[in-house]
Amino acid sequence: MSGERRRDPTTGDWTTFATHRQDRTFLPPADQCPLCPTRDPEHPTEVPRAAYDFVVFDNKFPSLTADAPQPVAPPSGVYDVAPARGATEVIVYSDDHDLKLADMPAERLARLVDVWADRYAELGRRDEVAYVFVFENKGEAMGVTLHHPHGQVYAYPEIPPRPMRELTAALDHFAAQGTCVYCDVVARERVDGVRVVCGNESVVAYVPYWARYPYEVHVTMRRHAASLLDVTAPERLRLAEVLRAVLRAYDGLFGFPMPYVMSMHQAPTDDGQWQHVSHLHIELTPPHRTATKLKYLAGSELGGGAFVNDTVPERTAAELRAVLERDRAPRP
Ligand SMILES: [Zn+2]
Ligand SMILES: [Zn+2]
Ligand SMILES: [Zn+2]
């Protein structure tokens, strides 16, 4: 059954089945890392180079592929099935096994933003791709199977449910107000100020007013930009600076590298008219509630789809700001 997608007729959502992924490499020792450069030709890794800056390659255990076969059993009755078409890519951030995003200079992180933009453009051009989703799962708490710093890109054949809900809400907002809801959120955060973690002239990072997770932070372009392709080179550096500051605040908060999921939302690449309602932003959702406690998705979240947050966004934003202020203070 590997490599097919089945549709839930009760919600309209698709589930991708990738059963071969059960066999993938699970937390290998650092000296057998498949993402490290090939230093000894006798023992090649997945990257046949002695050194590299960034590497992009197709996931060795893909859940979506360009040439996915037709499902064995055809759609029947209420059930719809489709080939798992699309792409799953891995972006390796560095040839240094221990270099986290937060430790990269902003100039280097800006080059990663260029890589993201390149993948968005190239995968988005494919006919079968409706949505290019850039993300990173970081830390064992997020189920990461390889510690080497890397992120992923999934190219889906339709707009996935969460971006679709955002776009639908943005369309409703535009119809009612005539404005982009993200532009309005950015304006409101600037006025209120209390949820802002950091920012510069192009980008702002804030704990959202409606945060689902205690330390959730959204990194959003100040001006309307539908995708990375609308973001200029100087703005990409500004984006890298703010993203880096947020990740450093995370790592400084509890004194250990913070696990998180990083998700980038930008315009779909289907034939729809999304330019006026898509507004590039990065959502960071760390699972930690405290240094030792994680937030688990349970009844209300999983069964009801309704998040319950037991912290106050204005307070968690102040905690993250305090970490950055502490880091800026001169050392005795
Ligand atoms: Zn490695
Ligand atoms: Zn906007
Ligand atoms: Zn979003």
Provide an overview of this structure.
The chain has 332 residues and is α+β, with helices and mostly antiparallel strands. It has a single domain (25-60, 86-328), classed as HIT family, subunit A, CATH 3.30.428. The protein has helices at 106-124, 161-177, 181-192, 233-253, 299-303, 313-328, and strands at 4-7, 14-17, 55-58, 80-83, 87-92, 131-138, 150-156, 196-199, 203-206, 217-221, 260-265, 281-285. Strands 3-5-7-6-11-12-10-9-8 form a 9-stranded antiparallel β-sheet, sandwiched between helices. The chain has a 3-stranded antiparallel β-sheet with strand order 2-1-4, with no helix packed on it. A hairpin with a 3-residue loop joins β8 and β9. The termini are far apart. The structure holds zinc ion (ZN) (3 copies).
Bound molecules: zinc ion
End-to-end CA span? 62 Å
Counting helices, strands and paired strands, the structural category is: alpha+beta
Beta-strand proportion = 15-25%
The first-level CATH class name: Alpha Beta
Overall number of domains:
1
CATH architecture heading: 2-Layer Sandwich
Q: Report the biggest beta sheet as strand number plus sense, adding barrel if it closes.
A: 9 strands, antiparallel
CATH superfamily: HIT-like
Uncertain spans: none
Mean pLDDT: 93
Task: Compose a concise summary of this entry.
By secondary structure, this protein is of the alpha+beta class. The chain is about 25% helix and about 20% strand.
Task: Supply database-style keywords.
HIT family, subunit A; 3-stranded antiparallel beta sheet; binds zinc ion; alpha+beta; 332 residues; globular
